[in-house]
Structure formats: structure tokens, C-alpha cells
């Protein structure tokens, strides 16, 4: 079923000369995340966190050929952030987009849907099934970045923002891994080796 859904989205993208992107959001905070360290046994390090609030949010879009695009915000994701990211990704990719995303309120809001409707040449949207994050290969990108940040101890929101950008930048340099995330999600995309 997931392959059929992505297959029809892929056909639509090809027919309309659009680039298929799978989209997701994630938040980064100073909240304590359990992780392993190289500390000596019995000398557990104590990491002091600045706050427990989500301080930085990331919107990430990936393509089946392994490209990754990210936009980072110092706020929770809203319709305004979604529209800014849509414009940014459209400009970076250079072709009209077919965006496949979940049913987040910011995606379905009147502001976002009106924006997409008024720019129908640039954007088309398809929704993932409800409660099916395992179908979105971008979730694997978020998990990998969060694992890399597990033992980080940013001293400020600037440090947290820089760290999120750095980790997504590292992943961006490994398109073969992003292609494997598509395969791990059980999605077959033609034209990908």
C-alpha cells in the first residue's frame, strides 16, 4: 500500500515535471536524552541543561535521489514557517515540487492551503496516511541527527541551532544513506540504483 501511494505520487511528479520531496519536522531542545558515554565506570558525567523547552525546530525535505534540504527556526512550526520553507526548497531545488507530508495542523491550515492553491504551478501536495511515520523515510534522518546530538551540551540557543545545522549538513553529504532510508521504509522508487 505504501509503495502504491508513493508510486502514484512519483508518477504525478513525473507527469507534471515536479520534484518529489518527502517532508517532516523535528524539534531540538536542551532536554536530557539518555545516551552512552566513554566515561569511566562509576564516574557518570552530569550534563546540566539550560532549559527543557523546544528551542529550535527543523523542517527537512528529502528526495528519492538522496538530496536533503533543511530550514531551521527558533520557534515551534507554524504555517508561516511552512510557507517560508516551501519557498526556500522551491528556490533551492529549482523545479515545481510535489510535497508528501503528514497531517500536521500547520500543513492543513487555511493559510498554508491558500498559499499552495495560489501557487499551484509551484506546489502540489500529497498526504501520508495518518499515524504512519514509518512510511516517511525522512523520519530516519531525524532519528540519525538526534542520535548524533544525544551527548551534546549546547550552552545557548545559538549553539543548539548551530549543532542542528551541522548534523543535518553532515547527513546531506551522504546521499547514499538517504536513498537507503527510502528502501528501509519499504518504498521502491524507480530510477534509483
Notes on the structure:
This protein is of the alpha/beta class and 193 residues long. Helix content is 41%, strand content 19%. A 5-stranded mixed sheet has the order 3-2-1-4-5, sandwiched between helices. β2 and β3 form a beta hairpin. α5 crosses α6. It is globular, with a radius of gyration of 18 Å.
Nutshell version of this structure?
This protein is of the alpha/beta class and 193 residues long.
Major sheet summary line: 5 strands, mixed
Please identify the structural class as seen in this structure.
alpha/beta
Q: Tell how many strands the DSSP assignment holds.
A: 5
Q: Beta fraction of the residues? A: 15-25%
| Gyration radius, in Å | 18 Å
* Low-confidence segments: none
Overall geometry: globular
Mean pLDDT: 85
* Total helical elements: 7
Helix and strand run: HEEEHEHHEHHH
Span between N and C termini?
22 Å
Overall helicity:
40-55%
How is the largest sheet built, in terms of strand order?
3-2-1-4-5
GO molecular function, one term: nucleic acid binding
Domain Tc1-like transposase DDE: 20-160
Protein name: Transposase
Organism: Microvirga aerilata
Amino acid at each position: 500500500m505504501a509503495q502504491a501511494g508513493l508510486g502514484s505520487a512519483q508518477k504525478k511528479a513525473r507527469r507534471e515535471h515536479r520534484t518529489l520531496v518527502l517532508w517532516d519536522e523535528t524539534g531540538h531542545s536542551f532536554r536530557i536524552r539518555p545516551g552512552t558515554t566513554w566515561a569511566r565506570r562509576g564516574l557518570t558525567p552530569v550534563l546540566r541543561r539550560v532549559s527543557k523547552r523546544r528551542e529550535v525546530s527543523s523542517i527537512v525535505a528529502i528526495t528519492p535521489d538522496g538530496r536533503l534540504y533543511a530550514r531551521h527556526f527558533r520557534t515551534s512550526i507554524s504555517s508561516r514557517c511552512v510557507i517560508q520553507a516551501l519557498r526556500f526548497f522551491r528556490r533551492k531545488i529549482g523545479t515545481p515540487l510535489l510535497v508528501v507530508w503528514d497531517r500536521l495542523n500547520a500543513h492543513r491550515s487555511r493559510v498554508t492551503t491558500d498559499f499552495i492553491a495560489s501557487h499551484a504551478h509551484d506546489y502540489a501536495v500529497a498526504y501520508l496516511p495518518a499515524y504512519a511515520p514509518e512510511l516517511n523515510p525522512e523520519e530516519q534522518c531525524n532519528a540519525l541527527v538526534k542520535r548524533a546530538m544525544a551527548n551534546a551540551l549546547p550552552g545557548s540557543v545559538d549553539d543548539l541551532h548551530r549543532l542542528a545545522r551541522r548534523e543535518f549538513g553532515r547527513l546531506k553529504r551522504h546521499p547514499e544513506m538517504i536513498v537507503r532510508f527510502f528502501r528501509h521504509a519499504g518504498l521502491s522508487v524507480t530510477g534509483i540504483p
